[in-house]
């Protein structure tokens, strides 16, 4: 054997980063935010100075979640590499002043620009777009005060070449749509409130000078998402009126997401009839009133569909198989399917069926066989009860979908039917889910060790087998079919919640532990699991799911007490990659022990707690904010007084705003009458992604925008 000297051994063990090939270094540098590369890393040595300016790193600049970026950094970045940037994403940079947009004019070669969530006036937009002659893709907000007449002829010339437009409307307006005469993709987000801050009712009629007609002749993708409110419905009808006159021949994706009731009119019926005659679609989503009771699906033609959403429709499984799946033909291309709230979609007919009746497993089997390449599937907000037939449980059939990346299921659908039939109700099942007088009961001792739990129940569980078969699942939502958040949008807080489904009464700690098999899990939502006794399964998830970035827990276990607090604190100590945490639980105590455990989540950026009658310790919150330097969003809607909430909010802002430019703090009593006024000031990025509870699986077609 060769004897290696101490010196040579030290050299062999040492790793010099600069000795790696340029290709490897470029790959490593691609994970570093562009602002750090250009403003910091490239100043370290000559080699990195060259590599940091490589086209592969400067071609696309993403600032949308770079919460540390400020106006000065953006200015310096544009000055250094502005001419090298072809794609710039500043979506959701709400904290940057509007003057920051002026520096985008240095990016003369921009092809794609996303400014959604940024403060942009009509004049600034005009000045900026006048210099961007190569722009083909644009995303902007249209706020009150927007005036299309202020757009210069050079700006309109740029807009005439734009083929992709994403427009978020906060006021009734066509925005820049009439100027975009070459549109192929149009995404519209309607966020117009029915009332002004002063309490006046708003109208859906467009402002004077807004009568220009949009140009849809080249349109291939039309997408509209409406927030609740009648004004949004009025305005979207104006956009659709032009489509009803002449349907674009190349239209292949038509999607309208509208909550509540959105009635069909003569104009929309003409539009749908024209689509049935003239186009073949690849993606479809319509308001439930446009589908329910109509034969529309029978007449629409599809090419190679990749996305369907029938959310909240009364579509039966029989119609789904006959009119959409078409016996399994041409459905291998389908990658995303949203059947959320579609209560009869797994039953042969809906006329005499109760929502709680067992599903027809043959329909689900046909769906699984026909759509074998599904990557995103949403079956939440419905009672999908499996029968006692062996091998036909919903979980067993879904385990065949090996390509799934995201999945949303109702709690009652994962129940092991045989276990429910054989096992009599336990004391924990009989505890009323109310806020009344506490009942002292004996609690079964649940082991904290995963192996012990597996020996007790999980080995024979159909849900355990499903989790084991979906090893590459990244997003999982298990939501009670009757769950509703205590904080809906544009309405007062909900004070009463519906009881969980009877079939869901046995779902608890062992099912949660089964989720820990998902090694690559990044996002987890658990809501209304009534049989959580200790929360021990959460610890297993914290230990095994090391890629977890988003965690949302709501109404777990008994409603009168947070029974899983100890397990949650143990779990958080292992969640080093966790960035977003949302907790919704009555009587939640956000005290020193909780925040001390949460401080172990070194990557945490956003925290939201919604708790009726919940309490908090101000000193603990301040200490947590001081220790977790990455936190830029803190939303707490609790049971504390308005004075306590305001004082804490002001203290956090005063102490940390200077070092965290993106800091957004909202601490407010959950049941206060002014809650809706407070909510309307929350940046849309936070409101849509974490503060408001909703199912997000297959909510939109994959890769709809950046």
UniProtKB/TrEMBL annotation:
PROSITE patterns xrefs: FBOX
Pfam hit, one: LRR_FBXL18
Domain of life where this protein originates: Eukaryota
InterPro entries: F-box-like_dom_sf, F-box_dom, FBXL18_F-box, FBXL18_LRR, LRR_dom_sf
Name of the protein this chain belongs to: FXL18 protein
Domain F-box: 14-61
Gene Ontology cellular-component terms listed: SCF ubiquitin ligase complex
BP terms from Gene Ontology: SCF-dependent proteasomal ubiquitin-dependent protein catabolic process
Provenance organism: Oceanodroma tethys
């Amino acid at each position: 054997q060769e004897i290696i000297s101490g010196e040579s051994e030290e050299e062999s063990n040492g790793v010099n980063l600069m000795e790696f090939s340029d290709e490897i270094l470029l790959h490593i540098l691609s994970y570093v935010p562009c602002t750090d590369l250009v403003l910091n890393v490239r100043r370290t040595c000559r080699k990195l100075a060259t590599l940091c300016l490589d086209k592969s790193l400067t071609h696309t600049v993403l600032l949308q979640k770079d919460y540390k970026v400020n106006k000065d950094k953006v200015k310096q970045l544009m000055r250094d590499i502005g001419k090298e940037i072809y794609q710039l994403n500043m979506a959701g940079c709400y904290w940057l002043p509007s003057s920051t947009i002026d520096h985008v004019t240095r990016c003369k070669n921009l092809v794609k620009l996303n400014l959604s969530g940024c403060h942009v006036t009509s004049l600034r937009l005009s000045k900026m777009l006048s210099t961007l002659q190569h722009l083909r893709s644009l995303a902007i907000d249209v706020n009150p005060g927007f005036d299309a007449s202020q757009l210069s002829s050079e700006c309109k010339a740029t807009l005439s070449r734009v083929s992709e437009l994403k427009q978020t409307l906060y006021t009734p307006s066509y925005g820049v749509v009439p100027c975009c005469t070459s549109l192929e993709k149009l995404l519209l987000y309607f966020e117009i409130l029915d009332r002004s801050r002063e309490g006046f009712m708003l109208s859906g009629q467009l402002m004077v000078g807004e009568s220009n007609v949009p140009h849809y002749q080249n349109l291939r993708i039309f997408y509209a998402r409406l927030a609740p409110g009648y004004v949004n419905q009025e305005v979207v009808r104006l956009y659709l009126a032009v489509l009803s006159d002449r349907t674009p021949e190349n239209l292949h994706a038509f999607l309208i997401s509208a909550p509540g009731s959105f009635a069909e009119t003569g104009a929309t019926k003409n539009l749908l009839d024209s689509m049935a005659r003239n186009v073949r679609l690849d993606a479809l989503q319509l308001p439930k009133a446009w589908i329910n009771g109509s034969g529309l699906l029978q007449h629409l033609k599809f090419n190679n569909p990749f996305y369907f959403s029938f959310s909240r429709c009364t579509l039966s499984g029989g119609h789904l198989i006959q009119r959409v799946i078409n016996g399994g033909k041409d459905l291998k291309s389908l990658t995303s399917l949203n059947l959320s709230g579609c209560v009869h979609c797994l039953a042969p007919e809906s006329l005499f069926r109760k929502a709680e009746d067992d599903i027809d497993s043959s329909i689900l089997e046909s769906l699984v066989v026909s759509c074998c390449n599904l990557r995103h599937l949403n079956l939440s907000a419905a009672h999908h009860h499996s029968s006692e037939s062996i091998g036909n449980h919903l979980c067993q059939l879904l385990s065949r979908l090996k390509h799934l990346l995201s999945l949303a299921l109702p709690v009652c659908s994962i129940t092991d039917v045989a276990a429910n039939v054989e096992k009599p109700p336990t004391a924990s099942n009989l505890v009323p889910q109310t806020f009344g007088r506490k009942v002292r009961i004996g609690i079964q001792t649940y082991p904290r060790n995963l192996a012990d739990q597996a020996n007790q129940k999980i080995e024979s569980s159909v849900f355990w087998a499903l989790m084991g078969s979906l090893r590459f699942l990244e997003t999982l939502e298990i939501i009670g079919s009757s769950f509703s958040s205590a904080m809906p949008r544009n309405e007062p807080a909900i004070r009463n919640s519906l009881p969980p489904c009877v079939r869901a009464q046995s779902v608890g700690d062992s099912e949660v532990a089964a989720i820990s098999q998902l090694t690559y899990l990044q996002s987890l939502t658990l809501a209304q699991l009534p049989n959580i006794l200790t929360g021990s399964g959460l610890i297993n998830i914290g230990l095994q799911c090391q890629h977890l970035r988003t965690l949302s827990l709501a109404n777990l276990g008994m409603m009168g007490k947070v029974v899983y607090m100890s397990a949650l604190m143990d779990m958080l100590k292992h969640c080093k990659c966790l960035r977003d945490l949302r907790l919704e639980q009555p009587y939640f105590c956000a005290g020193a022990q909780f925040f001390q455990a949460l401080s172990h989540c070194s990557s945490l950026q956003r925290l939201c707690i919604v708790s009726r009658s919940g309490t908090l310790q101000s000193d603990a919150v301040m200490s947590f904010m001081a220790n977790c330097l990455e936190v830029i969003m803190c939303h707490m809607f609790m049971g504390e007084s308005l004075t306590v909430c305001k004082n804490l909010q002001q203290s956090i802002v005063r102490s940390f705003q200077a070092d965290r430019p993106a800091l957004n703090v909202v601490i407010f009593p959950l049941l206060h009458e002014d809650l809706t006024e407070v909510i309307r000031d929350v940046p849309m990025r936070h409101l849509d992604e974490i503060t408001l509870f909703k199912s997000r699986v297959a909510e939109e077609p994959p890769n709809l925008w950046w």
